[in-house]
């Protein structure tokens, strides 16, 4: 049997070798970086590569900063951050490290990124090694590599800054991006200043850090001896390469910034279409001088920032115009309403994206009506742009006109829908219109695709009022003639009616019913005063930073301050309109109950129905039914039905099988007194019911 122990193919007893001696023999150190805790464990060889003793390293990568120059550290951080961000499995980078004796040595690191099931990076395992021999001892080669890295670093500055500025919409957003700690880090600067040109002067709009402000430079003239003024005046950059040069060229400014340890600075004009809109200064404390490549990159950076600033200025100008348009569309003032406390509020949306999308079509209105009544409107035109605001303004005006003409709530809503359809727009709108008689507390409401109102009681309880609804306004062509049923609610003294748009209700991740329950609870626990309650609700909307605008109207019915005068309700009933007749009947029954005459409700409703029917059958045109409470020697309820005919009603005898002729007999039998009055070109048949004696 041959002796295999001396064979050339024999293996050592510890084969395969452990990774640690393999790394050590190849002068490689290893590390294990826990990204959750931030701690990085290194083996002995890694300590040797970084030239740090075991007792000098506490497990935090920042401890190695004394070995890695700032510029090299930033470049290394950029490489690691990019790999973590773009989903890479590993990365590699060369960087220079300063040993104890002050010499710079090239070092190479390679890391493997371990991620969890969601793709989130949790750990980096890698190696570091001395790469000086690999890269060669030639100073020219080292310098070329450094220049290449510096050029890539500077290019990444422009790319990172441009990417951050892409999301900036306002001038303040641009300033915030540049003043942010990460922004300054990307720029590689210690301090930043920025000014905008306004009326021949430069107004300082940003300085960072906060303790770097120079007194007397908030507003400066373009002809003053400051570097930003020179950049604006000459349309060219100003590069200052040493503290001595800074002190010599700008003796007025230099004494105020010596505490910042500035070693060089670059002042860049911000130019758009050959016109200066401002200037920016970058001040450095860890470098002297600028290479031609660095100067070119900084000029390109200034151009990118100037474009962002101009875009932001245009955005703010258009937003001012758009918001002015919307404010012009909303009522300038809300009229005082006898017997009620009213509060209205509006809040614009906060939506990222295109200019003009921070406004919308939400509106409110309060319309004084004849007979002491008042109409309350809340609505929302589809969309968030200037077109929505313009449509809203037109719709608000015509709805107010229809209501002031005396039409019933259902007719007001139907006509507004037809108007919106004929307006040659693709927008629809939701709306809720409530007509209130504050002397009786009777509310008649119609709803066109809008959310229901809320009513809060004096004891703080709050409930959602279910109002029968129709389709949103503007859909007449698709669905034919729109019907809007009328809901009636009694508003007692001290009750508060709340009308709002869905921006106050809708929340991300919650359905409408959940939002209504949340709003109901918020109203129930809110302040008693309607103005304070309105402020509280709009503050909550602002805290949510929702993507929809909010309109809000609160109306609180006051209690009687003294002897209450008689109430009055009136409705038009057109021929061939059964819905209007049903509304009149509902109004009569509700009012009779509110006025304390429920024991005679059937009689009053029957007589009123008979008078209305007679007017519609025997005359031409509409019938106007009026209910009022009369006070004096006794409390009486008076029903009047007015028509356009001067022919007086007459009693007729009905046959055994006759279906007519008993109308006036019923009126005479059921009322306490009745009669007929001439009214211009027509007449009014009236009757009265004693419902309650005066209480003295």
Please provide a written account of the structure.
By secondary structure, the chain is α+β, with helices and mostly antiparallel strands. It has 19 helices and 27 strands. The strands form five sheets. The chain has a six-stranded antiparallel sheet with strand order 8-7-6-11-10-9, with helices on both faces. α5 packs parallel to α11, α17 (about 580-595) packs antiparallel against α18 and α18 runs antiparallel to α19 (about 665-670). The protein is elongated and about 125 Å long. The termini are far apart.
Kindly summarize this structure in a few lines.
By secondary structure, this protein is an alpha+beta fold. It is 35% helix and 27% strand.
What key phrases describe this protein's structure?
alpha+beta; 696 residues; disordered N terminus; 6-stranded antiparallel sheet; 27 strands; elongated; single chain
- Share of helical residues: 25-40%
What shape does the CA trace take?
A: elongated
Query: Residue ranges: pLDDT <50 for 5 or more in a row?
Result: 1-11, 351-357, 561-565
Biggest sheet details? 6 strands, antiparallel
Sheet with most strands: strand arrangement: 8-7-6-11-10-9
Termini gap: 137 Å
Radius of gyration: 41 Å
Give the helix/strand class.
alpha+beta
* Secondary structure: number of strands: 27
Question: What integer is the average pLDDT?
Answer: 81
Number of helices: 19
β-strand percent reads: 25-35%
């Amino acid at each position: 049997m041959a002796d295999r122990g001396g064979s050339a193919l024999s293996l050592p007893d510890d084969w395969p070798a452990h990774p640690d001696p393999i790394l050590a023999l190849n002068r490689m150190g290893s590390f294990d970086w826990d990204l959750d805790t931030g701690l990085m464990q290194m083996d002995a060889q890694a300590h040797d590569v970084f030239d740090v003793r075991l007792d000098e390293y506490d497990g935090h990568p920042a401890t190695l900063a004394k070995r890695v120059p700032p510029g090299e550290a930033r470049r290394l951080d950029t490489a690691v951050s990019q790999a973590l961000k773009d989903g890479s499995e590993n990365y590699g980078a060369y960087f220079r490290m300063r040993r104890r004796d002050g010499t710079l040595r090239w070092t190479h690191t390679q890391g493997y990124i371990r991620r969890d099931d969601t793709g989130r990076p949790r750990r980096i395992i890698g190696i570091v090694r001395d790469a000086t021999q690999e890269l060669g001892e030639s100073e020219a080669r080292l310098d070329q590599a450094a220049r290449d890295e510096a050029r890539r670093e500077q290019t990444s500055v422009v790319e990172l800054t441009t990417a951050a500025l892409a999301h900036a919409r306002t001038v303040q957003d641009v300033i915030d991006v540049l003043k942010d700690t990460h922004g300054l880090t990307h720029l590689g600067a210690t301090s930043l200043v920025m000014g905008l040109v306004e009326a021949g002067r430069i107004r300082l709009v940003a300085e960072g850090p906060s303790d770097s402000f120079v007194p007397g430079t908030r507003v400066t003239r373009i002809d003053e001896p400051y570097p930003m003024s020179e950049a604006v005046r000459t349309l060219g950059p100003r590069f200052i390469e040493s503290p001595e040069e800074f002190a010599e060229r700008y003796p007025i400014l230099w004494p105020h910034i010596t505490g910042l340890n500035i070693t060089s600075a670059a002042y860049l004009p911000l130019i758009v279409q050959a016109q200066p809109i401002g200037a920016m200064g970058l001040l450095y404390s860890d470098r002297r001088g600028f290479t031609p490549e660095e100067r070119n990159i900084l000029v390109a950076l200034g151009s990118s920032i100037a474009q962002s600033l101009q875009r932001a200025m245009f955005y703010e100008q258009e937003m001012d115009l758009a918001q002015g348009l919307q404010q012009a569309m909303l009522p300038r003032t809300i009229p005082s309403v006898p017997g009620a406390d009213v509060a209205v509020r509006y809040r614009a949306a906060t939506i990222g994206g295109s200019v003009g999308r921070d406004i919308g079509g939400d509106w409110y209105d309060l319309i004084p009506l004849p007979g002491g009544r008042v109409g309350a409107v809340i609505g929302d035109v589809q969309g968030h742009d200037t077109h929505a605001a313009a449509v809203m303004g037109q719709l608000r005006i015509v709805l107010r006109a229809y209501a002031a003409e005396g039409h019933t709530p259902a007719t007001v809503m139907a006509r507004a829908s037809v108007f919106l359809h004929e307006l040659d727009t693709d927008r629809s709108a939701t709306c809720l219109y409530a007509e209130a008689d504050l002397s009786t507390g009777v509310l008649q409401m119609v709803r066109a695709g809008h959310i229901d109102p809320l009513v809060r009681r004096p004891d703080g309880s709050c409930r959602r009022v279910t109002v029968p609804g129709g389709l949103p306004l503007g859909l007449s062509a698709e669905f034919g003639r729109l019907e809007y049923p009328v809901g009636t609610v009694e508003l007692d003294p001290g009750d508060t009616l709340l009308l709002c748009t869905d921006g106050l209700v809708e929340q991300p991740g919650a359905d409408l019913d959940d939002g209504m329950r949340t709003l109901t609870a918020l109203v129930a626990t809110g302040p008693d005063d309607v103005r304070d309650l309105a402020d509280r609700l709009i503050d909550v909307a602002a805290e949510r930073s929702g993507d929809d605008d909010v309109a809000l109207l609160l109306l609180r019915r006051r209690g009687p301050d003294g002897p209450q005068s008689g109430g009055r309700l009136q409705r038009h009933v057109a021929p061939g309109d059964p819905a209007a007749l049903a509304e009149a009947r509902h109004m009569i029954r509700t009012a009779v109950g509110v006025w304390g005459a429920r024991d005679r409700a059937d009689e009053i409703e029957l007589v009123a129905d008979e008078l209305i029917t007679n007017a519609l059958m025997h005359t031409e045109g509409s019938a106007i039914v009026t209910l009022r409470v009369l006070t004096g020697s006794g409390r009486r309820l008076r029903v009047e039905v007015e028509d356009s005919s001067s022919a007086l009603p007459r009693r007729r005898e009905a046959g055994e099988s006759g279906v007519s002729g008993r109308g006036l007999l019923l009126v005479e039998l059921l009322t306490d007194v009745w009669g007929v009055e001439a009214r211009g070109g027509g007449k009014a048949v009236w009757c009265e019911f004693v419902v309650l004696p005066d209480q003295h």
